[in-house]
Amino acid sequence: MKSISMTQYLLEEQRAGRINADLRLLIEVVARACKRISIATAKGALGGVLGSAGTENVQGETQKKLDVLSNEILLEANAWGGHLAALASEEMDDPHPIPDRYPKGEYLLVFDPLDGSSNIDVNISVGTIFSVLRCPEDVKPDEKAFLQPGTQQVAAGYAIYGSSTVFVLTLGDGVYAFTLDREQGSFVLTGLRLRIPEETAEFAINMSNQRHWEAPMQRYIDELLAGKTGPRARDFNMRWVASMVADVHRILTRGGIFIYPRDQRDPDKPGKLRLMYEANPMSMIIEQAGGASTDGHRRIMEIQPQKLHQRVAVFLGSKNEVERATAFHDGTAA
Ligand code: AHG
Ligand code: MN
Ligand code: MN
After folding, report:
1. Looking at ligand 1, which atom is closest to the CA of residue 272?
2. pLDDT tens digit string along 69-94?
């Protein structure tokens, strides 16, 4: 079979009138930046990219060298194309305007440059997550312009730097996967209109936090752990990579439910993951693949963000399982 490159796929989407030239360029530029991040990640100790950068980001997390480098790569790649009004990132306190010397475009790009950074030094899969929004017309591209619910995303995707590098993309009409051909240096279409099985017997959660969870969450997981002789009458398996990109990629491939619930440690912190550059793009991908995504109560993509770095509880993956887990929190579970 003749292989289709990402460039060809995007050009055909443009010809069919589903995306414009600027959005095509934007996706190509992000994919090219991900290729560079993939190369830097794969060099590991040889590239001098392991370890801490000795700085902290806005959320008070220690930045790894690769967090900082990936952020710079994405900023640099996206500055000059004329397709963006501004960018925002997990690793920057405030939105980053396009420098005055370059033309501006209609899109806003939000990203987690390196997801799963605690895994860099131990050679486990990490990734990049991104979300594309439109900048409202005649609006200054400051933080307020970014505060749009996930339903407004025009595109979302991630790159996983695993045993192979895969770029997963949705333009709002199905989910497509492109594997990096390292010899050719290009992304090749390897997954069309991906679908997540509606039923699953696999869950992903950091069990070490169990004692901090709220009661409905405790009950839901207890039922999964009870296995065949419990109320669910089947055994469940557990996986937790601690890179959201890797856990979501597994779920996209073979189903499952991913949960990072809110807990009782800090009432001001509704979960660990960030709404704008982790939960929303992943929710769009999961929904486009036939899955579901909630914060335990409502659809994540309908949440009106109040802050760029806002956190949210996340339940996503196989549709029926996400609905069951959500029902526990609504009090509608049998
Ligand atoms: P990041 O490296 O971008 O800060 O994100 C890490 C996130 C996510 O990738 C993962 O699912 C989760 O943190 C893991 O959290 P725990 O270490 O609490 O398990
Ligand atoms: Mn992350
Ligand atoms: Mn990150």
Report:
1. 13
2. 999 999 999 999 999 999 999 999 99
